[in-house]
Each structure stands twice: as structure tokens, then as C-alpha cells.
């Protein structure tokens, strides 16, 4: 069974004042077909974890290991991580002027698989995935994310996830900026990808609303660069009622 294993991960970020430690020893194992939700207050390190796993150059792993099926993920370049089966749906998807969605998707699929998809079957697959996500076919000819609304950008991220069929997907605040209808459609796309490919999912979010549609197998509370508590979906329900105050307070006391 494919497994993404994180052990005692420490990560720092470059600032004007020099390196700043963000992650302070993260342990997490995600198996194929599992959905893990990471929840926590702003500034707790959730997005840093996503960026470090994807290989963002701004973040430096100072110690710890990350393996994908026993292979050293941290030794891989960004493109090698993608070909190994790691996918990141970004919190703030970037615009790529002059590159159409259609060209981007086919070029990325070719790079990941090592061979170009057959045009006839690929066209049908893209069209079907766009229809499922309620995306206008005209989007295929537009520049990547240029002029897209927040909801359209997030649908495009999940379109990629469905088409690229990664082994593990990191969804960094995919619910951010979505209205109720867009949240439901995006969540349906995530669930559909999981049903079709048994992708392992690391879902990063502040709020429980997306967890009404995407049911987590495990919930992890992230505070001050560490996992403060773990549990099942019932933990998310408790967080909805109680918030993060007790974790933040305990972390501040421990630091002092």
C-alpha cells in the first residue's frame, strides 16, 4: 500500500532577519485511500508543511525525513516529486499568462506520465472532468487562472487532481474563498478522485465546513509547528464548538 511518511520534520523559512523555525517536529503517516485533515489557527505552520513537502525553495528542511513508499522525497526535485505521485492544490493558485488551460493540462500530464496522452481519449477525459466540476468548456482556451474568480481557480486545481491521478494530494485550504455551491462542487471532485484512484489526501483547513462534504479518517490539530492532538472526525466537531484556545494557551505555557 502506498504510504507518505513524515518523521520528526523541522522546517525553517527565510526572513529579512534570517532563518525562522516554523515546523518543530512533525510526525505523520498517510496511507493510500486515507483522508487526513490538518486543522489549526493562523500561523501554526499548516501551509509551511504543504510547501515544504512540495519542495518550495523558500522553506528549508533542517532535520527529519519524508519518504514516499520508502523513497527519500526530500532528495527529489519539485518535478521528480510530481512524477513520484505528489500533488499540491495551492492556497493561492498563480496566473500563467499566455499558456492556455488545455495546453497546460496536456503538457503537465505528459511530464508526469512520461508519454503524451492520446488526443482523442484525453479530450473526452478533460471534457468530462470539466463538466463534473461545472466548468464552462471555454475555460480550456483561457490563460491559466488569468481573470479566474477564487472559485474558478479552486475548481481548476481539482480538475488537475482528477486528471493527473496523483498517489497523494495535499489540499492547502481548498475551501478558502468558496461559496456554498462551489464548496460542494469542489468537494465532490475530491471525493470522486478518491473513489477512482484511492489517492491519499492531506486536507489543510481552518474550518469544519468542508469536512461536512469530505469526511476525514483522521483529524490532526496543528499548533506552533507541531501536532497537538489527533483523533477521528469527532475531533473536528469538538473544534467547531471549542475552538483552538486551549491548545494555543498550552503551547504558550510550554514555550515559556
Q: Could you please describe the fold and organization of this structure?
A:
This protein has a six-stranded mixed β-sheet, sandwiched between helices. It has a four-stranded antiparallel β-sheet with strand order 2-1-4-5. The protein is built from eight helices and twelve strands. The longest helix has 18 residues, at 180-197. Strand 11 (218-223) and strand 12 form a beta hairpin. By secondary structure, it is an alpha/beta fold. Helix 5 (150-164) runs parallel beside helix 6 (180-197). The protein starts with a strand and ends with a helix.
- Major β-sheet annotation: 6 strands, mixed
Unreliable parts: none
* C-alpha Rg (nearest Å): 18 Å
| Helix amount | 25-40%
Class from helix and strand fractions: alpha/beta
Number of strand elements: 12
Strand content: 25-35%
Name the helix and strand elements from N-terminus to C-terminus, one letter apiece.
Answer: EEEHEEHEEHHEHEHEEEHH
Mean of residue pLDDT values? 92
Amino acid at each position: 500500500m502506498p504510504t507518505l511518511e513524515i518523521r520528526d520534520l523541522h522546517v525553517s523559512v527565510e526572513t529579512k532577519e534570517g532563518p525562522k523555525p516554523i515546523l518543530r517536529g512533525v510526525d505523520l503517516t498517510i496511507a493510500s485511500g486515507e483522508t487526513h485533515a490538518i486543522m489549526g489557527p493562523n500561523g501554526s505552520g499548516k501551509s509551511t508543511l504543504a510547501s515544504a513537502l512540495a519542495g518550495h525553495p523558500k522553506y528549508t528542511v533542517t532535520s527529519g525525513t519524508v519518504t514516499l513508499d520508502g523513497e527519500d522525497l526530500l532528495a527529489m526535485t519539485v518535478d521528480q516529486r510530481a512524477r513520484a505521485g505528489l500533488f499540491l492544490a495551492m492556497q493561492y493558485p498563480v496566473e500563467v499568462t499566455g499558456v492556455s488551460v488545455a495546453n497546460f493540462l496536456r503538457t503537465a500530464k505528459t511530464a508526469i506520465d512520461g508519454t503524451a496522452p492520446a488526443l482523442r481519449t484525453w479530450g473526452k477525459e478533460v471534457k468530462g472532468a470539466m463538466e463534473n466540476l461545472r466548468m464552462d468548456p471555454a475555460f480550456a482556451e483561457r490563460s491559466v487562472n488569468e481573470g479566474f474568480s477564487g472559485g474558478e481557480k479552486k475548481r481548476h486545481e481539482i480538475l488537475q487532481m482528477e486528471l493527473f491521478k496523483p498517489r497523494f494530494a495535499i489540499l492547502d485550504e481548498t475551501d478558502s474563498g468558496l461559496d456554498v455551491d462551489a464548496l460542494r462542487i469542489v468537494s465532490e471532485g475530491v471525493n470522486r478522485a478518491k473513489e477512482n484512484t484511492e489517492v491519499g489526501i492531506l486536507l489543510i483547513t481552518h474550518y469544519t465546513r468542508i469536512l461536512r462534504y469530505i469526511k476525514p479518517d483522521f483529524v490532526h490539530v496543528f499548533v506552533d509547528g507541531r501536532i497537538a492532538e489527533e483523533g477521528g472526525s469527532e475531533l473536528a466537531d469538538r473544534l467547531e464548538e471549542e475552538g483552538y484556545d486551549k491548545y494555543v494557551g498550552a503551547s504558550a505555557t510550554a514555550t515559556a
